[in-house]
Amino acid sequence: MSLVERQDTLTADSLVWDGGHGSVADYVALLKPRVMSLVIFTAFVGMMLAPGDMHPVLGLVSILCIAIGAGASGALNMWYDADIDAVMTRTAKRPIPAGKITPQEAFTFGMTLAAGSVLILGLVVNWFAAAFLAFTIFFYVVIYTMWLKRLTPQNIVIGGAAGAFPPMVAWSCVTGDVNLESAVLFMIIFMWTPPHFWALALFKCGDYRAAGVPMLPVVAGETATRHQILIYSILLAPIGVAPYLLGFAGVFYGAASATLGAIFLVLAADVWRNREGDAARKSAVRLFTFSLFYLFLVFALLLAESLISGM
User: Fold this and answer.
1) Cys staple from 74: which of 32, 184, 240, 241, with CB 3.0 to 4.6 Å?
2) Where are the transmembrane segments (predicted)?
3) 152: DSSP letter
4) What's the pLDDT at 138?
């Protein structure tokens, strides 16, 4: 049975599709625009920090291809996960479980975008970056979505690499390779991902349990999840300061990122302490919400320093 047939079989009994009538908004939703916006931003920062010059048109093409590749990954993720999306309150209104787009349409849409983004990036920019983008899409769709997500509670840890690659892909668009500085950008996102998503999983645990997804709170329990959140937050704090320590960010970034890391740690410790009732839920929501601001501000500070130093 092919993957497409598998997905149709999994969801056909519970959903009725009116195929071919999805609106533009439905297809945009397949791209996971909120995730795409974060990918675009972190990729843009990676491009701006990379040494060397790049023609603005090539830069725009690079960012568009990375964004489209991220959208393709989102569409293929929704195609494969339509069965579990249908039983989770957070995802039940997505286009496929809502019956607005069929799995086959989503699969075709995602594969077309994936192939197009990689091909254009290779032909217009460079083939190293194109291969890196192809690997990123493969990692998210096959390694994370099809394999790890339903297999292990460490799905977010390993699968988080896919979301951390875009700054490195953008860096390689400029330089044709990657180096230590681009790897540090990767590590910031990579270490940020587990506490960010496990905080979400703590207050959405029922959804994941109902869908049969082995997220850490479902498999190991909430106490073990709180321990892991604290451990990863402790590791994230110095990695967030690493651009300053390695000399490619200034003192202002160093002080600001250290402050942001300290706040992240305080909130993670609050999640670790509060283990019962409404206080536990509120502490997890606070960490999840701040984690979004943390990643945005860290990369915004790097971008601001890069722009100021280039004046």
Assistant:
1) 32
2) 35-51, 57-80, 101-121, 127-148, 155-171, 183-203, 229-246, 252-272, 284-304
3) -
4) 97
